[in-house]
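Subgroup meeting minutes
Present: P.N., E.W., G.H.
Scribe: E.W.

1. P.N. recapped why we're keeping a running log of single-chain structure predictions: easier to compare across weeks, and new members can see raw inputs and outputs side by side.
2. G.H. added today's entry (78 aa).
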Amino acid sequence: MIERSVRIILVSCGIAACGYGGWLLWELTPADRLSVVVWLAVGLFAHDAVLAPIALGVSWLLRDRLPVWWSRTLLIAL
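Output recorded in log:
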């Protein structure tokens, strides 16, 4: 019962945060909206081109040096 209540509260907070973000975006000028889109696109590219290969490389290097249960946890986390 408590878990359901916590889930409802968290979902409500998430929906409220999305609504607030949408309201803030609506208030921006078109030039500012374009800069937000560019910023998000660069962030996506940075994640896919830089951070993901680094995480893959770290997990690949550490998989044989850690105990099996740590190795599995690391691969799942990364």
